[in-house]
Amino acid sequence: MTDYTVHIVDDEEPVRKSLAFMLTMNGFAVKMHQSAEAFLAFAPDVRNGVLVTDLRMPDMSGVELLRNLGDRKINIPSIVITGHGDVPMAVEAMKAGAVDFIEKPFENTVIIEVIERASEHLVVPQADADEVNDIRARLQTLSERERQVLSAVVADLPNKSIAYDLDIQSSLRRGASRERHGQNEGEEPSPPRANGSHRWLRSFLSRRVDLAQCGALPQAA
Known about the structure:
Order of helices and strands: EHEHEHEHEHHHHHHH
Number of helices: 11
Mean pLDDT: 75
């Protein structure tokens, strides 16, 4: 199953059901909409989707739908399905923001390829602004050494490399000789774990790619 949803907009029920069935059988997540107005009302809730819309529909055409989406700053990779001789309207749809168009009749493999190409326009969603601000505030509570370790972890460096680069290894050995932690002979020490006051780091680190893209995490050197 794809990690995005294909939204099918067509006023003809047999057409949208047939297309939805074919795409579902080919591993796509699908949601059907019976009109452009119905999808326009739903569009603000779309988080990760590709739109496949018929061009000629009553009340609101595919071109008008794309223009409305653009006016509302709703960015969804869109494909329009045209009938024979509708190429001029398809050009208008491209100007309105469509990434591609398909002329009826079409082979299943063709629309699958077009949808997959359209999905390349999807933008990875940014973390919620409030969460990012909270992370930035919490990062200010870290010591310089903790921030260095965090940057290295975000860069997926191995523990041994982090310990060597930041000289944590020798620090831990000095601490072990004083406090007798019972570490086995020859065992490689690991970078210090987040203490109780920094346990929030563990859950945030599991999503570090998205957070780093938002600038919420320090960049590795």
